[in-house]
Amino acid sequence: MTTPNTYTYEEIISQPKAWAQALEVTLAHKEEITRLWEDHPETRVVFTGCGSTYYLSLAAATLIQELTGRGARGIPAGELFLYPASVYEVNQPLIMIAISRSGTTSETIAAVKRFQQGGHGPVVVITNYGDSPLAKLGDLTIAIPAGQEVSVAQTRSFASMYVAAAAFAAQVAGREDLLKAMAGLPAIGSKLLETSQPLAKTIGSNLNLDRFYFLGSGPRYGLACETNLKMKEMTLTHSEPFHFMEFRHGPMSMVTGTGVVIGMLSTTQRSHEQAVLDHMESLGSNVLSLAESEADVNFDSGIPEAVRNVLYLPPLQLMSYYRAVAKGLNPDKPTHLSAVVELNLE
Ligand code: F1P
Question: Is 152 near ligand 1, meaning CB less than 6 Å away?
């Protein structure tokens, strides 16, 4: 299959290696992670980042709360910088987990510094640059250099940091079974990239399609937001993410035969989620379903649902990549964007 020689394509295709390093590095920090968690019992968690890494924060917060029962939220770093009191009380003990590919995004650094000035609790940093200013601020820093990339739109980097966050959640939840199962992700990811590429290319290359809706619920909503952002950044196409059950409450008015409703189907709530896709198909929409099995894209992973969510990313990253190429756009350089937003926030 010939593909234009772009950084984005290579970064998408090579990402399972970065997932493997994410697992290795997170496991190497196991004692420190467990100690930090146990030294701060019942302490709630706030994840933060910007753009892609805010969406990662949303996904990671729902997962860690589901697995540990501790309250967790994902908040944009810009909001933590502007309105910290809207997120945490003055003396509230908290664990902050700051996520950033570059480790230099101004709002994320400012949010961490403000959090540390408030003395709320420890800061964990997940980044692809271990020598970055943000990495140096962390009480515990998980750095995954294999996730570094040239392209502006995050693909390999996001997935590597997400795998690290999921492994962190499984570790603090004491779920050795989930950690063990995660070891199979890189090989399954490589196979999925191969098996899903033809469909991703077919849909991505179909320029009769003019709108995309990404549906995900629970720990998958943040990933629906992220794959939606890839569609925007790489292809300049209007697209939106929604929680599954929300889509009927108004947004489905936009459903047409030139649109695609993409469903990140779970196993646990499959019937309710599939019903939304079936409903949209009955209204004339195109539908693309991704699931462990019996879907348009099947993972066939054998990995428990809580720690296989990264598998939704590669097929949808490839779909946006192929749409960018079909539109004659350079997926490596999204319009108006730079790899890092650096502001003078003083
Ligand atoms: C985050 C960011 C995102 C944006 C794009 C490029 O940077 O700027 O805001 O969506 O993906 O990365 P970082 O803090 O993760 O380096």
Answer: yes
